[in-house]
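Async update (no meeting this week)

Hi team, since we skipped the sync, here's where things stand on the single-chain job. The sequence we agreed to prioritize is pasted below, unchanged from the tracker. I ran it this morning and attached the output directly underneath so nobody has to dig for it. Comments welcome in thread, and please keep replies under the output.
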Amino acid sequence: MGSLLVDAPGCAAEIMLALTDEDFQSPDCRTVFNAARALWEEDSPVDPITVAARAGEAYRRFVREIEEVTPTAAHWRGYLDALRRQSMLLRVQRLASEIAGGAAVEADPGQLQEQAEQLLDALSDTGGQRRDYTMTELLTRFFTRQGEPREYLDWGFPQLNRHLFCGMGAYVLLAARPSVGKTALALQLGLHFAKLGKKVDFFSYETDEEKAADRIMSAQSLVSFAAINQGGIADEASMKNLISAKKRLMNRPFRLIEASGMTVENVRAQALRHGAEVVIIDYLQLIAHKNGRLSEYERVTEISRSLQTLCKRYRLTVIALSQLSRIEDNTEPSLTHLRSSGQLEQDADAAMLLYRPPFNPLESPQEQRDAKNRRFLKIAKNKNGKTGKIKLWFNGDIQTFSEQWRGYYEAPEQPAGDVELGLADPGQQHQVSLCDSKQTAQA
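Output:
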């Protein structure tokens, strides 16, 4: 408060955006803070005289005392951090006391769980997060952000990066029919985010840790998934590749959770407890709900709304896998094919549909032969970018997706081996390995 009174031009904007009157325990400080906030929002001078006049005559002496005990305004950021920490600890103590009191009198377990989740909110420093802003604050925050580069998720696919601009707090759907490769793609995305330093929680509702590890190691080592599945890895080259992949992956911040039976509340608690930044759910229709009497439509609708709230309130990015309804052969899927509830389409910031390309008699014989390995990733909804389709390869034998580069089928046949191939972005080169039928194994 003293720094605010002594040097408002240097610190008022950030203090006002970071605090509310509830962060102050003293009623007198709350009154003075609200007086200073009112002046700031009016674009009036904020100093001891104007603040005392706005707060009232009874606070004139108190304002003078605040000014006198402030050694310097130069360290206002340190004071601000200390106040926020103290406010968080007091909030935690109050919630912990309520939980202990409820447990002592054998309160309803559901109520205790709700209080425990509030405690996690407070510990993660999100429980007291600002959710309302005046026009003055909105404009101040807008101009504060100008000149600062905005950070978006790097998806690991150059063409996808040019379509999807998703920052923290995005709710993204990845939908497909069974056996198209959505789990493999989700694991590939999660490991890529972890490689870039994001803390990733992968909630698996149908794949156990053994099968997930098999997929991961096959994709990262380029050792046949079928061979790993059969437990027949004996040759020295394959084992060397597996060991090399292990060394690369050991310290990545990626966590697999066997989530069978978990509700959205369980997912939230786990993610907040471990400080996750990206949450991947495989898959949404399998998430449990505490009310077992709901229809599938009602259950999935509520789950989708809860996931959207999780993203926005806690600034987590959620990538939720979803099933597509059965569609006729040679039919391109659309958002209407999202299974169980139309709420999925409404809630998502972006929706991607992964599918096999329909049969096209105009394609070349080679394209038709490769159909089983080709995939289209259709960006059907995108709030912050453009929609469209991206052509991918899926090499099921090593559980790996890669982009199909421009001019792929116009290029002459090349022998298998490591070569450099230009992608859609001119001048951008990726080292890739070719398999039979010119399949890309790794980009």
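Quick observations from my side:
The chain has two domains: 2-145, 158-442.
Confidence is low (pLDDT under 50) at residues 411-443.
Reply here if anything looks off.
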